[in-house]
Amino acid sequence: RGAFKTPTIRNVALSAPYMHDGSEATLEDVIRFYNAGGKNKEDISPIIRPLNLTKSEIADLVAFLEALTDPVVITTPEIP
After folding, report:
1. Is the pTM higher than 0.90?
2. CB of 53 within 8 A of CB of 31?
3. How far apart, in Å, are the Cα atoms of 1 and each of 4, 44, 48, 79?
4. What is the pLDDT of residues 22-43, one digit of tens each?
5. Residues near 72 by Cβ (< 8 Å), separated by ≥ 6?
6. Counting Cβ atoms within 10 Å, is residue 27 exposed (0-12), middle (13-18) or buried (19+)?
7. What share of the chain is helix, strand, coil (3-state, %, to 5)?
8. CA-CA distance, 40 to 37, in Å (whole number)?
9. Are the C-beta atoms of residues 44 and 79 closer than 8 Å to each other?
10. What is the sign, positive or negative, of the torsion defined by CA atoms of 36, 58, 16, 65?
């Protein structure tokens, strides 16, 4: 109960919305969620706690995650 498979973080910037229920719209929202220690639920693990990241550290983490995105080149096929 409460366990989820953890996907790769490659191209994570392209996979919004985030979380298993789509409750976070941006990477920054996800980081702020974890920075606050998640949501207070009855079955939350005792090892989950606030991260106390600064605004600069949050921005750096978002930039790092965005750097894991493959360059996307979409070409429109020519229709005969």
Report:
1. no
2. yes
3. 9, 11, 16, 50
4. 999 999 999 999 999 888 777 7
5. 14
6. buried
7. 30, 0, 65
8. 8
9. no
10. negative
